User: Fold this.
Amino acid sequence: MKGIIVQKYGGTSVGSIERINNVAKRIIAAKNNGKKVIAVVSAMGDTTDDLIEKTKQITPNPSPRELDMLLSTGEQVSISLLAMAIQAQGHKAISLTGSQCGVFTNGNYKSARIEKIDKTRIEKELEEGNIVVVAGFQGISDNGDVTTLGRGGSDTSAVALAAAVEAELCEIYTDVDGVYTTDPRVVPKAKLMDKVAYDEMLELARLGAKVLHPRSVEIARRYKVPLVVRSSFNDKPGTKIMGVEAMEKAVVRGITLDDNIAKVSVLKVPDKPGIAFKLFSHLASNNIGVDMIIQNVNTNEVNDISFTVAKDDLNHAIQVLGNVMTEIGADKVVYDSSVVKLSVVGSSILGDPDIVSGFFECLYELGINVQMISTSELKISCIIDQEKANEALQSLHSKFSLDADEEIELNVV
Ligand code: ADP
Ligand code: ASP
Ligand code: MG
Assistant:
């Protein structure tokens, strides 16, 4: 089907009835421009956080199935209100939940992956002249249960739908003007980028730039979905995410801070084959993702293995590791949740010795101890103490000449 555009509106953009009415106006403008519009929306404002908070008053470990059932309600409030707002402004609209619009996922509650999209219903509604308003962040598993795609997952719903219907454009409307060199709320001198390569954006998103859900960038890159991140509060063009050729010269494109991590160390693990396998297979079978694995050689016989997990998974990880300690013959498990992952991102930066040494020099000048390091062609990441995180972010931003000449103005709250 030709002439389809997908617009996604985040929580702040639909945070009040007034804002929902404004979003309806934008969507209608696109429709009046001759486009068939699919609008994907998030839950209003802090709804998802508030729902999670409520579960904590009942239990620290809610059943993942029930949690997804609960969280999916946030987006359903937004879709119905937005569809009503569009109708009230004189246009045809219909709201659809994830399952109604054919978003099929695996059964991995809380971080489900989209496996298939059946676009029949969406195309039928578009054909009939409706603006289709879709609940982001949610899908349905093979056994008919509601699933969610992980925090920030509405971006992924939007991009996946755009890929499925071969939309000519997917616009991610948010509360900042686009993608910046770092979080503009933390570093006021962050610079807006007019374009960024899929690969670089993917690395920024994976490393904590929450302006886009990492999976949304993976899908956009794979299916070459033209993607734009822009503000829902003004008409500025925003940032294009696109396939551009690798730059000749390595440059730092952005800096990220991820505070949703914790460091775990398993001490005095016997130095023999199969131990790491046992350790990580137990974590994997409990669906606990790990990152930044390092091994310190302690003596000839024993090693320490350290890695990071998402902060939300820490309690679960400690519990799982507690159960395998005796089996693998380790001494004990220690952890630290007051750490952050600080990263610099840019094409082929690892190949530039000045960037590598500049990164560590900057941390040294601030007296920051580097606890773990990991690198790829596109990034240098390290784990440091949370306390110094913002200072390090600001200094690296200046060091790599990313500061804008003037401080940016944030348009919202
Ligand atoms: P939405 O509710 O619209 O999905 P999010 O809160 O998920 O919005 O993402 C937008 C936020 O991402 C911004 O308000 C900003 O604080 C944060 N952010 C972090 N890193 C960046 C970056 N590099 N560029 C732009 N925004 C960033
Ligand atoms: N409402 C969900 C969240 O807050 C999904 C999203 O906003 O993208 O994480
Ligand atoms: Mg988001």
User: Anything to note?
Assistant: The two ends are 38 Å apart (CA to CA). The pocket of adenosine-5'-diphosphate (ligand 1) is lined by residues 10-13, 42, 152, 174-176, 179-180, 182-185, 209-211, 254 (CB under 6 Å).
